[in-house]
Amino acid sequence: SPRQGPGPAAERPDPSRLRPHVVLAQENTQIRDLQQENRELWVSLEEHQDALELIMSKYRKQMLQLLEGRKREEAEPVLKVHQANSGEIESQIDRICEMGEVMRKAVQVDDEQFFKVQEKLAQLELENKELRELLLISKESFEVGREDLPD
User: Fold this and answer.
1) Does the global pTM surpass 0.85?
2) Could you list the residue ranges forming a coiled coil in this record (predicted)?
3) pLDDT at 91 over 80
């Protein structure tokens, strides 16, 4: 009986050709996870900043009420403590804002990296499609060539 071309085993894709696609898919998943984590951290950071601002405003209000109820000379040491504490808390808020800026930049870099990976994936998929079409054309021309040969 005449042979009918390659069997089912030959139709399965070569695993080595799948690797770049699989690696890119894994990288995409990791990037999405990191972006989600960054968004969650960013929300958490903003909540902490809001809480600190609220604490500071309440603290200032209480200090003003306390100072209004005392004579000037009694208030002097309390005022110094208030200024020291206020300065410390404000420097902490500044540090948190700096951290927030670093995180914002990290999110931006992650987004850029994600788009680069997406672009590369699209290029590879297009290349793969073109190679499959070329392979199909060459198979068809080979089949036609075989049919022309005498038995």
Assistant:
1) no
2) 114-141
3) yes
